Amino acid sequence: MSESFRKLAGSLLVAGFEGTRPSSEVRALIREYSLGGVILYGKNCIDPDQVRELINSLQEVAKEAGAACPLLVAMDQEQGRVVRLREGMTLFPP
């Protein structure tokens, strides 16, 4: 598989990861496969400031890897039974 094909395929993927800081695995996916985005779950989130720092550090990895565009960042935040962040952010109805 050529590098350009691998990176094109990687740009279509969104991955989750463990922890509140970028794991070595997700950093490797961003660098080696031009990962298109990440999804954050409760295991990644403490508070809005920590999430902002996490996203900034992930975006920095993508930028240093030469990504053509920023990572898409998604969060499992439905505002019903699923709420990852409650304080310090705008809450929308479920």
For the report, how would you describe the main beta sheet? 3 strands, parallel
The secondary-structure class comes to alpha/beta
Mean pLDDT level: 85
Query: How many β-strand runs?
Result: 3
Largest sheet: spatial strand order: 1-2-3
Please give the count of helices: 3
**In terms of per-residue confidence, which ranges show pLDDT below 50 for 5 or more consecutive residues?**
none
Report the principal-axis shape: elongated
Beta percentage is 5-15%
N→C terminal distance: 43 Å
User: What series of H and E elements makes up the topology?
Assistant: HEHEHE
Query: What's the alpha carbon Rg, rounded to whole Å?
Result: 14 Å
Identify the notable features of this structure and list them briefly:
three-stranded parallel beta sheet; 3 strands; alpha/beta
Structural features, described:
By secondary structure, the protein is an alpha/beta fold. 37% of the residues lie in helices and 11% in strands. The chain has 3 helices and 3 strands. It has a 3-stranded parallel sheet with strand order 1-2-3, with no helix packed on it. Strand 2, helix 3 and strand 3 form a beta-alpha-beta unit. Helix 1 packs across helix 2. The model has no long low-confidence stretch (mean pLDDT 85).
